[in-house]
Amino acid sequence: MELRARLTAISTLFLASVIFLSGYATTGMQRSATTTSKVQTVQGDVQQAVMQVNTSAEVEA
Q1: Could you tell me the superkingdom of the organism this chain comes from (predicted)?
Q2: How far, in whole angstroms, is CA 19 from its chain's centroid?
Q3: Per residue in 3-54, pLDDT tens?
Q4: Of 11, 40, 54, 61, which has the fewest Cβ atoms less than 10 A away?
């Protein structure tokens, strides 16, 4: 194989690897955003429950 063909093959493999791995990065960022959103929702629900318990305790006292 001549040098130019080898360089072309290596360049093509490198480019394909970069594209392939960038797909994983995008998927990871999407999962992270979804998880963050879910955690914030749960945190809001917990805070609301605590407020309701505190309100109930004040009414009974």
Answers
A1: Bacteria
A2: 19
A3: 889 999 999 999 999 888 887 777 878 888 899 999 999 999 999 999 999 8
A4: 61
